[in-house]
Amino acid sequence: EGAIPPEPVRDLRARIAAADALVICSPEYAHGVPGSLKNALDWMVSDAAMIGKPIGLLNASARSTFAHPQLAETLRTMSATIVEGASIVISLDGRRLDAAGIAADPVLAALVRRALDALATVI
Q1: Is 29 buried (19+), middle (13-18) or exposed (0-12) by CB count in 10 A?
Q2: Which of 25, 30, 76, 96 fits a disulfide with 58 by CB distance 3.0 to 4.6 angstroms?
Q3: Is 35 helix (H, G, I), strand (E, B) or coil?
Q4: β strands within the chain, DSSP E
Q5: Neighbour tally for 62: CB within 10 Å
């Protein structure tokens, strides 16, 4: 209590506080949330920026079945609002698509568009 967090943490907190919503897409690592993401979230626990923040979770691998629910539980514990319609699985397994490739694929683009629309509706 009373400690001043490092500048990168203050910057992260300010950016999250200024955002209307968040979209988080993270890989699964060793059947869990990667340590770097979990560490960033741990820095947010003592800050009010996540409270009630609408969040969409994108899972880019149908084989990633552990990290997604763990991430959702961590965010709920932080009092963030997981927007179910904005939380989707986009199976990119083995497809090696970049953002332009995803946008060019009508099926994938429609999934992402619906998720973003659901998030925008909450905002």
Answers
A1: middle
A2: 25
A3: helix
A4: 22-25, 54-59, 81-82, 88-89
A5: 11
pTM score above 0.85: yes
**pLDDT tens-digit series, residues 55-112:** 999 998 888 889 999 999 999 999 999 999 999 988 887 788 888 999 999 999 999 9
Read off the amino acid at residue 98: D
- Host H or E run for residue 122: helix 106-122
Beta bridge partners of 57: 24
What share of the chain in percent tops pLDDT 90? 77
Give the N- to C-terminal CA distance of the chain in Å, as an integer.
32
- What tokens appear for 32 in the block? 């869990």
pLDDT of residue 41: 96
